Amino acid sequence: MDLFVKKLPDTEFGVMKVVWDNTPPVTTTMIMEQLGAERGWPVPALITMLTRLSEKGFVYSEKKGKMRYYYPLIKKSDYIEFITKDFMTKYHSDSFTSFYSTYYDVRMISDEALDAFVAWVKRRRGEFRRYHSDQ
């Protein structure tokens, strides 16, 4: 993953979600249909955002005739990994206990969701042990 990735503003992240969620290439028209109308953006505002995303290295664009086509340069999973690590380090000192404690204390998570997380941790722990016992 590119070490120079920066956190995107919410509007640019919204555009990237559309780019990531569609099979490349993506056109301005496709993005306007899926996002622009909902947000009330004029086409020039979307083009400005796409230009910024290109300058930041998130998308590559090419013009064919009158249409401009956009291709993601950074995978969604890489960006989510980066932003999650940044959030966990900045706000929770890389502590899942801190994160879940905060989440639970402000009633943002139900007991059922917490139980599902505990079950996930147990499964992952078992996978980790099996993987390391094979080596």
What key phrases describe this protein's structure?
135 residues, mainly alpha, Arc Repressor Mutant, subunit A, 2 domains, three-stranded antiparallel beta sheet, 6 helices, 3 strands, 64% helix, 10% strand, elongated
What's the SSE blueprint?
Elements: H1 10-21, E1 26-27, H2 28-39, H3 43-55, E2 59-64, E3 67-72, H4 76-92, H5 96-105, H6 111-133
Antiparallel strand pairs: 1-3, 2-3
Helix pairs in contact: 1-2, 1-3
Short characterization:
The protein has six helices and three strands, in the order αβααββααα. It is mainly α and 135 residues long. The chain has a three-stranded antiparallel sheet with strand order 1-3-2.
Order of helices and strands: HEHHEEHHH
Nearest-integer average pLDDT: 87
Poorly predicted residue ranges: none
Q: Please describe the biggest sheet, giving its number of strands, its sense, and whether it closes into a barrel.
A: 3 strands, antiparallel
- Widest sheet: strand ordering: 1-3-2
Radius of gyration, CA atoms, in whole angstroms: 20 Å
Any idea of the CATH topology of the largest domain?
Arc Repressor Mutant, subunit A
Shape: elongated
CATH homologous superfamily name of the largest domain? Answer: Winged helix-like DNA-binding domain superfamily/Winged helix DNA-binding domain
Strand content: 5-15%
**Total domain modules:** 2
Structural class: mainly alpha
Count of DSSP H/I helices = 6
CATH architecture descriptor text of the largest domain: Orthogonal Bundle
Distance between the termini: 27 Å
